[in-house]
Structures are given as structure tokens and as C-alpha cells.
Amino acid sequence: MKLKQIKQATDAAKHQNHFVSLPPAFLKLDIPAAPSPSELDEDRKQITSARIQHFASPLHPNLLDQCLQLFEENMGNMYQSSSWGLDLEEKRKELTHDDARFLLVLSDNDDADDLPTGTESSSQVLGFAHFRYEEDDEDDPKVPVSYLYELQIQSTHQKAGLGKHLMNVVELLALKSHMHKVMLTVFKINTKAMGFYLNKMKYEIDECSPSNFEGEENENFDYEILSKSLVGAK
Ligand SMILES: CC(C)(COP(=O)(O)OP(=O)(O)OC[C@H]1O[C@@H](n2cnc3c(N)ncnc32)[C@H](O)[C@@H]1OP(=O)(O)O)[C@@H](O)C(=O)NCCC(=O)NCCS
């Protein structure tokens, strides 16, 4: 694709919100009851339902803080021991980027039905996805993509289907926005996430992932770039 076409596609995607066309029932989540009380804490036992909501940047400060905190809890140690290091101010900037879009899993436990519209900011964030519509490669753009910058589920609510559901919504929105791929970056050491994306969500190592070029400059990268194509084989 020509650069002009790629930019047109990403610009159009940035101005649309296909989330509103998704059926509400698809955005409701029932969190399964704990298989054994000893395996899960009180929080999880109390929560029975949640909902997915879409937000464009800027996120309400309370929701932003919860996302940042969740990121730190899940990924802090991994980032600290990575080549990138942990820089929470940098992460905050990333989460406040103009093009940032979010899917938040919000707890319905706080009598959300009784809350006036617009007070979602007081809800508890159980998980979130941060994604943006952009070119696949800054230096050599080939196609428009939905780039997943973050996928985080609270540890007490992992393995309950929330991550898969969020990925399904990210992919559906990307498809409706005519993006050619969903792309993401994952640390090699993050074997759980790697297994989730590769085995469960059917992602593949992208052609631009550093592991395709290792040896050429003798660099050892500690991450992979994964992708899933959304266009039919030609
Ligand atoms: C990785 C993560 C996003 C997955 O989300 P999740 O809500 O725990 O995963 P789900 O419950 O939706 O799993 C969906 C399916 O994937 C499977 N799965 C989960 N982890 C897997 C793994 N390591 N290997 C293979 N399959 C896996 C589950 O068994 C489930 O299968 P099922 O639908 O047949 O039951 C979540 O665990 C997480 O937030 N981890 C910490 C943060 C992180 O690493 N984020 C990714 C950064 S790139």
C-alpha cells in the first residue's frame, strides 16, 4: 500500500467509533465462580459481572491511575529486569497519547445501574487494553494496523476469559476499521502471555520482529513483535 493510502486508512479509523455498533450483550461479562474457595480471594468471589467500555484519550484521571497501577503490579518486575527498564512517567505519557484508545473491563459490583451516566470513572478497573490505529512500521510503513500497546488483567481475575474477550473486541474493531493486522510487543520472558497470544489467540511472529534479524547486527533483543492478519490470503 502507498503511504498516502495507509495514512488515509488510519486517519479514518481514528475518527470513527465502531464500538457503539457492538451489541450490548457482547460487552457484558460473567466472571465464573471460583472453582475452589482456597484458590481465589474474597474480591473475586464477590464479583459476578462486569462490562467492557470504550474510551478515547484522555482517560479520566481515576481510570488512568488504576490502569497505571495495574500495569505496575503486573509488569513492574519484568520491565525492571528488561532492556527497557521501568519508567512509570514514560508509561503515563504513553497512556495519555492523543491517539490512545482503551477498552476497560469495569466491575458491575458497585451498583453501576444506580450510578448516573458519566460516573463510570468511579468503577473498578479489572482489566484493560490500550490500542491505537497507526502504520505497522515507522521507518517502512506497509499497512494500517491496530497496535495493542497494553493488555492487563488483574491477577485475581486472570484465566477467567477476560483477556480473550478483550482481544476479540480489539480484533473486531480493527476489522470494522479496515486495519490489515493487529500487532503487539511481548517480552520473550513473559512465557504466559506468549503462550496466550501464540497458542490461544493464534498470533504469529511478525515479519518485522527482531528475532527475524538476530545475528545480522549481533543484537540480542528480549522481545518479539507478534501479529494476526485480518485480511484474507490472496
Ligand atoms: C496474558 C493475559 C492478558 C491473559 O489474559 P487472561 O484473562 O488471563 O486469559 P483468558 O482467561 O482470557 O485466557 C483465554 C484462553 O487462553 C488460554 N491461555 C491462557 N494462558 C495461556 C498460556 N500461557 N498458554 C496457552 N493458553 C493459555 C486459557 O486457558 C483460555 O483458554 P480457554 O478459552 O480454552 O479456556 C493475562 O494473564 C495478564 O494480564 N497477564 C499479565 C499481564 C501481561 O503479561 N500482559 C501481556 C503483556 S504483552
TrEMBL record:
Catalytic activity: N-terminal L-seryl-[histone H4] + acetyl-CoA = N-terminal N(alpha)-acetyl-L-seryl-[histone H4] + CoA + H(+); N-terminal L-seryl-[histone H2A] + acetyl-CoA = N-terminal N(alpha)-acetyl-L-seryl-[histone H2A] + CoA + H(+)
Location in or out of the cell: Cytoplasm; Nucleus
Pfam family, one: Acetyltransf_1
Enzyme Commission number(s) of this protein: 2.3.1.257
Transferase listed as a keyword: yes
CDD domains in alphabetical order: NAT_SF
Keywords: Acyltransferase, Cytoplasm, Nucleus, Transferase
GO cellular component, one term: nucleus
UniProt KW Acyltransferase keyword: yes
Broad EC category: transferase
Family note: Belongs to the acetyltransferase family. NAA40 subfamily.
Protein name: N-alpha-acetyltransferase 40
